[in-house]
Specification:
disordered N terminus, Rossmann fold, AB_hydrolase, 284 residues, 8 strands, Alpha/beta hydrolase, hydrolase, 18% strand
Length: 284
Amino acid sequence: MERSAFSGQPSAAEGFGRINVGGRTLAYTEVSPPSPRANVLFLAWLGGSRLGWQSVVEAVGDEYRVFAPDHRDTGDSEAFTDPYLLADLADDAADFLRAVNAAPAFVVGLSMGGMVAQHLALRHPELVRGLVLVSTTPGGAASTPATERGRAALFLPADMEAQERARQALTLMTHQGFTEAHPEALDEAAAQAARHPMSAESFKRQFRAIRVHDVAADLARITVPTLVLHGEQDDLIPLPNAERLVAGVPDAELRVYPGTGHMPHLERPAEFLRDLRGFLEAHA
């Protein structure tokens, strides 16, 4: 059993598992009530593991069958040393959904996870019931780049200890003043980094995959219900990138959180859960 250090007891059954997907072993958390309304898949961001979604997974798991896998090469999943693309991570997610009999699913992805979700919807549309794209981008030449503060979060010193790296990255990714007001968020980030430290090589593999991400020309082929959630003050993936998503995906809806950075599920947890639950309820 796995549980966030700062969350309460979940009302649903919760478990940790490993499963063979395409010849690789992926680790995952599953939370589900006795009679779930639908399946929901959460995909993590650059440098993150499934633990980063834990509080949201526990909350949504009271009504839905929820999964949060570790991407290949991260967390408790099998080590992976070859280069890969985000499309490969999308294929992993597709194989995972089939293996756990959870398709079609609503797919919720933040940052890199949202990029993977876009590839998943394009490559395996039959497996996706709806998309919630958080703090993410379609990529491509028209992208609005990170601010100086956002770039600083990506390029912290390579020899920095994992827990300190997590603290500094979270401080730079969230809106100014957030971590000072919420030191428990820093403690949680450090604890997750201690549990799942990411090597510099793994981080580079993910970063290189992100650098070539570009589905801008294909967004019109995403026809499932889509909700785009973004922080107004996101320094890592600025707001115009979300606006490009909404302009490209038919009937996509945008919600912008004022005074919020790259991690709205941490910075605005009540509003984030309200919007996520509303979307799931409307389309389940």
